[in-house]
Amino acid sequence: MSDLIFREYRRPDDAEDLLKVRNAIFPPLTVEEWLQDESQTASLAYMGRECVGAIPLSVRDFKLAPGVVIKAAFENAVGTREDLRSRGIGSGMIAAARDFLQDRCDALMVYRGAERSDGYRFYWKTGHRDMIYLRRVVLEHPEATDVKLDPLGLQDLYEVEDRVHKLYQDTYAEYGGHPPRYVGYWKHAYAGQIYTVIKHDTYFFRWPEGPDFQAYVIAGQRTGPRADKQLTINDLASADGDPKTMAQALRGLITFAAQQGLPVTNPISWEHPFRRVFRDLGFRESLRQTMIMAQPIRPQMIFDKLCRDKSAVADLTIKVWTPTTDFVLHEGLQPKHEITIEGKDQQIWRLLFCRLPLATAVQHDLISICGATDDIVQRLDAVWPYAPWVYHHIDYI
Question: What does pTM read for this prediction?
Answer without folding.
Answer: 0.96
